[in-house]
Amino acid sequence: MASAGACMRCLSRLPSGTGAAALRSQRAWLPATGRALGATTTYARGKRLFGHTSRLGERVVKPPKTVPAEELTGKAGASAASNVSHKAFSDVAFAFDIDGVLYQGNRGIPGAREMLRAIHALGMRYVFLTNGGGAHEDAKVRSLARRLGMSDDEDALRGRVIVSHTPMRGWADSVKEQTVLITGSHPETARQIAIEYGFKRAVTPADLIHANDKLYPFDNLKESLHSQFRPLPDGKSASSIEDAYSADVPADALRIDKILVWNDPRDWSLDIQVIHDLLVSHRGYLGTVSSKNGDATLPNYGWQQDGQPELWISNLDLFWKTDYPVNRFGTGAFVEALRGVWSAVTEGAAELQFHALGKPSEYTYEYAHERLLHDYGDAGSVNGAQLQPWPSPPPQQQDGSSSSNEGNVDGTRHPLRRVYMIGDNPESDIRGANGFAPADGTEWKSILVKTGVWRAGTEPSHRPDVVVDDVVDGIVWALRNEGVDVTRETLTGGGGA
Ligand SMILES: [Mg+2]
User: Fold this and answer.
1) Where are the alpha helices (DSSP H) in 46-186?
2) DSSP letters of 238-255?
3) Entry pTM
4) SUPFAM superfamilies per the record (predicted)?
5) Does residue 23 have a pLDDT over 50?
6) 391 near 408, Cβ under 8 Å?
7) Which of 390, 386, 300, 429 has the alpha carbon at shortest distance from 10?
8) What is the 3 state secondary structure string of 341-357?
9) From ligand 1's centre to the CA of 425, what distance in Å?
10) Ligand 1 centroid vs 300 CA: distance in angstroms?
11) 3-class SS at 173?
12) Mutual angle of helices 471-481 and 112-121, in 10-degree steps
């Protein structure tokens, strides 16, 4: 199994263009492994926790202020928001997980729509922070809007979604010039998204098997899953190398600089084969084998020590929740399979070195935090200023510098005091929020809901600050924790009671 130690060795080799300094400063950002959700010990079912000390130790200490119901319902709209001046609303923010929090399967959580409209009308800052991926952020907005019965151009939704691979938007242009292998559930879709992010040379496994039919001598999926392909970039070839161990690499040989697992792949066999081939290669030239592999005098027994491409995984979720009664495998399951093969190939001598995005990685929380800090459009509406949507791409580069494409954002951070993460997955949502301590001192608190993958009544693998029935109760709890006297009924206008 990979370990945080192995990860830190990875980080020490990161080029500056991928934000190495920012990444190195993070602690234990790569989990050792995913694991099954829902432990076996009994977890006491909590009652409604508002105004009480929760079973998980969170104490609500502030006396609530009364907020008129019309200010908390979407019915009041912007006029209500403009009258609200609670400090809590300007320096408190929310990060919502989506799947299992705002909807279950195809069904929106009752009251979630009204709640979102209400906090938007109040000018509160929030993002949707999901480990989902493989689709463009706008597509995720559309699917969320459909399930919640909202319009996908509502300001309460648009411009707020951060999917697992969204942080790649902020990567430096020099990185986006590199040749990357992209795979996922729909590699061609992933490539198109990557191009929209600014990547110039994205290659899919389908490109490779159509460029060299000896690379993977099975054609079961060649005309279906892998039917969409493009010529290799810059006239490169995937078949010009004949001797895997020769140091004389032809000039037209394809070299891959990075491997990006965009989301959960469908053809594990091909993808594990190709990723393996690149991780054992000489400097990422497909069809070569490094002479350093297995060299006990080198770190990691010589594996991944010869300029092979970096492996980036968009998230490590082992499971995800569908309408099927048993949780389904996610991208983390693919990584576990890859680790297993890697262990066999290296005879257990080497750890698989890779970088992970998505919750619970601090990298992703840092990205979400920066988005919230720069979100002055909504906060401005409280003070009567014009409401402005977020720019796209988001304002922060991966190395922490300002982006040259900041749209409406003036580069100013608008301080936060507290952010509430509302999630259904203790292993990602709760773990990430509990472990995240941004440098500006903002407190991140965790709220676990019962509507998703976590099974109520079991001990969560990572304890939240509070357990609530659903996302509406989560926001009610958070607002009461900020001293605002609000109920589920006033927050939703009765729409989610
Ligand atoms: Mg979820």
Assistant:
1) 69-72, 77-83, 87-91, 112-121, 137-148, 173-176
2) SS----TT-S---TTB-B
3) 0.76
4) HAD-like
5) no
6) yes
7) 300
8) HHHHHCCCCCCCCCEEC
9) 6
10) 35
11) helix
12) 30
Burial of 387 from C-beta contacts in 10 A (0-12 / 13-18 / 19+):
middle
Evaluate whether 393 touches 406 at the Cβ level (below 8 Å): no
Q: Which of 337-346, 356-365, 371-380, 383-392 has the lowest mean pLDDT?
A: 383-392
H/E element, 447: strand 443-449
51 Cα to the center of ligand 1, angstroms: 26
Listing DSSP states for 298-324 in one string gives SGGGGTT-SSPPEEEES---SEE--SS
355 phi and psi angles, rounded to 5 deg: -120, 140
Q: Which of 15-29, 89-103, 440-454 has the lowest mean pLDDT?
A: 15-29
Least confident of 7-11, 163-167, 261-265, 364-368: 7-11
DSSP string computed for 205-239: HHHHHHH-TTSS---TTTTTTT----PPGGG-BSS
Separation of CA 100 and ligand 1 centre (Å): 5
pLDDT in tens, 35-87: 222 222 222 222 222 222 333 333 333 334 445 545 554 443 333 333 344 55
Nearest to 423 by CA among 457, 481, 463: 463
Distance from residue 46's CA to the centre of ligand 1 (Å): 20
Expressed in angstroms and rounded, the spacing between residue 68 Cα and the centre of ligand 1 is 32
Distance (angstroms) between ligand 1 centre and the Cα of 328 equals 13
Tell me which residue has tokens 């079961």.
Answer: 220
User: Residue 414: exposed, middle, or buried by beta-carbon count in 10 A (0-12, 13-18, 19+)?
Assistant: middle
Residue showing tokens 């990430």? 432
Closest CA to 125 of 376, 323, 449: 376
Instruction: Compute, in angstroms, the gap from residue 227 CA to the centroid of ligand 1.
Output: 32
